[in-house]
Amino acid sequence: PGILAMEVYQSRVWVMGETVMSFSAASNGCDFSVAGGGGSFGYSGNTLTTTYRDLRASASYLFVFGDSSTDMVNNVITFGDGTTIQFTTQFNYLNVDPMVGHAFPRKVGHSGRYSVLASGARAYPSSANSRNSGGGLWLLLGGEAQEIGQKLTNLWMTLDTSQFYPTFATVTMFGRRIVLLNGMFVDPWGVKRSLMLGYDGTTWTIMSQGLNLTNIGYIEQDSICDVYGTDGNSLYHLFDHPDPTLKKKLSTKMLKNKGPLTHLSINSWKRLFLELSDKSGQGVSIIGTVTTAGGGVPNGTEDVAFQLAAGTASGFEAQPLNGQGIMAGVDLESFSPDFIIERIHLAGDSRSLFGA
Q: Which residues are registered as beta bridge partners of 275?
């Protein structure tokens, strides 16, 4: 069925087919003959459902990603001299995780020594019995796979692969390396569109560029990763300049007091503070709403607005509030080209314990 992936590992070229792996002679990527020390082997385990997906050399191992499991190769040794004694190549082939693999016929996400896998996803979400993307997102570091998609569950379950498969890329941004995943999702505001999700090793962020991208990839030079994307018609260099036409949105969860005795207290919300930094010098304009809920008292939504004048590098901006309730959530948006919300502070007075 063709070549699905290639990788260089321990001075050999490794080539992946659907269920067959081939490796070249040492220091000769053109010679795959047994006489030269190369060879091939078919999959013989019980954890590969249909096909291999990707290869990656990392941390002295060659990781072999299948559709529902992950294996690895190490300790590659060639015996013989090729004349009096025929070359014989031996290596260890070990299972890393029998239940976590990469579902899509696309490359696994990479950043440094760790890999990000989309496990257990269904390629045909229209099927009545399909649990689309049910396996979630996993981080593979060394020989251990950890689930990292818990906070993306509702979004991830809307993934639609009927038009294109999700793709991964890596970008260096503000000195940080971020793994990107582009796919078709229903966003938190109910709109089905191409979304790019970014993972920095701790936090997921929606990082879309206002383009209907179908594929993303990257190049690395001098330890800097530049990411590119296409909509099928044009190639775009992503994250290369501030965009005053792109609407930036931030939505918090519903926030409550953290103390054990005040967790269910009814609050009179008094102020919303933003710590802002302007990176463009053109000023910052932000509008939004604060929504209160819970506590058996009148709740509601009120508008807020923040301004940072052009030429002001940073500021601590406040907006008065009048809402009441156990919880309050903040939704903000802006067309300002380049700024940072350093922190959000929501302040209020605890009136009484709910039900007291």
A: 316, 343
The label of the residue with tokens 């299972």 reads: 95
Whole-number Å distance between alpha carbons of 286 and 318: 12
| Percentages (nearest 5) of helix, strand, coil residues in the chain | 0, 50, 45
Those residues with Cβ within 8 angstroms of residue 262's Cβ, 6 or more apart along the chain or in another chain: 350, 353
Q: Assign 3-class secondary structure to 322-355.
A: CCEECEEEEEEEECCCCEEEEEEEEEEEEEEECC
Q: Tell me phi and psi for residue 152, to 5 degrees.
A: -105, 5
pLDDT tens-digit map of 109-167: 999 889 999 986 554 444 444 444 457 899 998 778 899 998 888 888 889 988 999 99
Whether 353 has a pLDDT exceeding 80, the answer reads: no
Instruction: Collapse the DSSP code of 152 into the 3-class scheme (helix H, G, I; strand E, B; otherwise coil) and give the result.
Output: helix
Can you tell me whether residue 318 is helix, strand or coil?
Answer: strand
The helix (H) or strand (E) run that includes residue 155 is helix 153-156
In the block, residue with structure tokens 């490359």: 107
d(CA 192, CA 149): 20
The pTM (predicted TM-score) of the whole model is: 0.84
